[in-house]
Amino acid sequence: xxxxxxxxxxxxxxxxxxxxxxDPEAARRALDELRExxxxxxxxxxxxxxLDAMVAATGPNTDVIDLRSRRxxxxxxxxxxxxxxxxxxGGLAAAGHLPGPVQDTVSRIAGAIAIDIPRSTPGDTVxxxxxxxxxxxxxxxxxxxxxxxxxxxxxxxxxxxxVxxxxxxxQQGPxxxVxxxxxxxQPxQxQxQxQQGPxxxVxxxxxxxQPxQxQxQxQxQxxxxx
Amino acid sequence: xxxxxxxxxxxxxxxxGERGAFETIYxxxxxxxxxxxxxxxxxxPEDLTSEVFIAVVxxxxxxxxxxxxxxxxxxxxxxxxxxxxxxxxxxxxxxPTLPDDVQARMEPTDETPETxxxxxxxxxxxxxxxxxxxxxxxxxxxxxxxxDMPIKEVAAILxxxxxxxxxxxxxxxxxxxxxxxxxxxxxxHQYPPDRPGR
Lengths: 226, 198
Hints:
The structure holds 2 protein chains of 2 kinds. Chain A is 49% helix and 0% strand. By secondary structure, chain A is mainly α. In chain A, helix 6 (187-194) runs parallel beside helix 7. Chain A is elongated. The relative contact order of chain A is 0.07. The model of chain A is unreliable at 1-6 and 138-226 (pLDDT under 50). By secondary structure, chain B is mainly alpha-helical. Chain B has 10 helices and no strands. The radius of gyration of chain B is 18 Å and the shape is globular. Chain A binds chain B through residues 1, 3-6, 9-10, 13, 16-17, 20-21, 26-27, 30-31, 33-35, 37-42, 46-47, 49-51, 53-55, 57-59, 64, and chain B through 2, 17, 19, 22-23, 26-27, 30-32, 34-36, 38-39, 45-46, 49-50, 53-54, 56-58, 67-68, 101, 122-123, 126, 129, 142, 144-146, 148-150, 169-170, 173-174, 176-177, 180-181.
């Protein structure tokens, strides 16, 4: 060390160690031995290998095999692919375009972390009612009341043969309801509108309360269809 | 061994990518770099040495200064690579094998068995002394001895105040002094291990 440019620095260490051990010669010898064992000679093969790497790192082809950066690139690529897959699946799930079981699974997982993803729609697989009179002129099947907003529970969906009296005002009446079979109290209204209904209709059993209105409107639409 | 008066010429040739200049720099500094990495417990000191010199030659264009500051610059890169290595080590399981130089000395050589045993004992003794130092103390003492660097430069490399480096050096030398006095003394006067703030 002292043949470099700082013999005074070596002396500083020796002096400080001498103060601690009391013997300058022992202090100097100890530091020399420590230095001798710290300086690590390199094997010729290792030296040549390192020099090759240095030349390759600065040469025209600087694609030195660097395992760490390669691992880092792989990790980044994997992360990006994973993120894209997650975003794509999430987008399709939010739009409800995934296949039914997958949609349900994604919905359940997302629900666990308080993200609202619609479940697969069971109504998609239910045939629409085909009863004559159910559909107004010019209306397509898609205009049927089953087309409710996602998530809304429609009590009448999937129940084309629902019982008279279940029908709320303004909704289609049952195709098989009978004119005049109304509960006491509002007979005139039910009777009058019911006469426009199909001739093959059977006496129904409208529940007391608001029977005539529901019945009558349903039949009115039905007869108009014809 | 120093490059000396040829330093500027060698540096200019190295910037042009000449292998001979790389070799001159490497042969001058690699023993210090490898020694620093080994004594400070790098997991794969030789591999890390290669990384250090690749970083050195890639960044030669940004270096300005004389040979002394070049050595400090290289050891600064070395120290930073070592810290990166520590971070990797903390995320991976420890390698239970012996240090490279101890293993190398256990392999058959042309030396007599007595010389080999003495060398091995001396190496293990040095390792024992270094093991009794904290990481910061070890870094200070190895930079001071191997790099022959003044306190100010060591403080800059380790990113610590000069007073802290002086204190670390004093405690490291005190530990070394107790080892010189005898193993019993060193065993009974250990400083409490203060964890470095790397």
